[in-house]
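To: structure desk
From: M.T.
Subject: fold request, one chain
Message: Could you run this one when you get a chance? Sequence is below, nothing fancy, just the single chain.
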Amino acid sequence: MAAILAGVHARALRGNASASNATKVGAAAKGFAAYGLSLVEMTPSSDGHHAFARPLPAPRPHKRTTRQWYQSEKSASIMERLESFMDEHVYPAEAALIAEQEARRGSDRWMPHAKIEELKALAKKAKLWNLFLPSDTRELIAPSIRAEVDCGPGLTNMEYAPLSEIMGACSFASEVFNCSAPDTGNMETLARYGSIEQHEKYLKPLLAGEMRSCFAMTEPAVASSDATNMQAEVVHDAKTGEMVLRGRKWWTTGAPDPRCRVCIFMGRDADADGRPGHRRHSMVLVPLPHSGVRMLRPLTVFGYDDAPHGHAELEFENVRVPATNVLLGVGRGFEIAQGRLGPGRLHHCMRAIGLGERALAMAIVRGSTRKAFGRPLAVLSADKIAEARVQLDTARMAVLSAAAELDARGNKDAKASLAIAKVVAPRAALFAIDSAIQIFGGAGVSQD
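Reply: Done. Structure tokens follow.
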């Protein structure tokens, strides 16, 4: 409010104001600014020290206490229970889990955390399990599996979006609710395009959270943003009836995880010449561990290995699997990929916004409890904080618009909205995170 009034006053001084009494708002602007400053300045504590001299907790995004305009009653009800679960179980476990992971060395870094498994059991009991699975996809799952495994409440993409944002605020929260990538996309792929046998063998344990999965598509030798460049091969051995897989893949997220028990491999059919460009690739299920599949190395992202889940470079050397392991049919890999990527992109976008909200919350607390040049950092960095809020809210609206279009029209017709969301969401999250780094100063670029 102070900023708005100050802007009106400035225009009045330049003779550009539309109201004749605009010069009078200057005093009001000062009053609002003084009041705001009194709110952000911290008073001395009982021990005589200021709060900004003590270590800060990791603040959480602002908790929504009312149903948002874009939410159904069903989504709002689940959101309330989800936020309570995060406050009661997830956030309190965060510091200890991070410390434990940082202390691990060697192969121990890739071992699952017992605490995560405990939280997963609690999430199942609280009926906060498989929240990502859309109702139309859930209906495609074999009835026998739906009778045994909690397949979630059957939300639309619009209903799930705010829940995904809440989970995104904590790096491991999505796994707690069985809503983490790449398993969500792989489960939807299996549900939509897998056979009854594949449902039973792979989808059921994934839905139950009993194993993890990976998706092998990107390759180090080609520009993989154009998937038609793929060099990895899928060869049909007419003598044995098997599919033979050859090639090298990287950025295969989840492959280093010892719980990873199935890989969806996408490659170019060896006999694809003469087919249309997007009918030359197949997706094949590879149970893990498997003869011929070798993990060459875990990859790091700016020096971080993202253990215990991680990303791997894999070698597929004459890997043989039954022809029944082909998803949907030979040459239909791109068809599957387009069906898989739509919801998954939105999940990533909303998680990114959640992470941006977490960074912004931390920046505000830090800015309110540190001073420079006699003024709180929150005042000195007000433009960054305001811009981060604008960008995050804008990104949220773009994602919700894409979710609504995806629900109403499907992946193909919503591709433009999905593409927009995929651009603005990470951009907004990065701005919020970078702003937080600047406000935290040296601590922003350290392990603290």
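Reply (cont.): The two ends are 34 Å apart (CA to CA). Let me know if you need anything else for the meeting.
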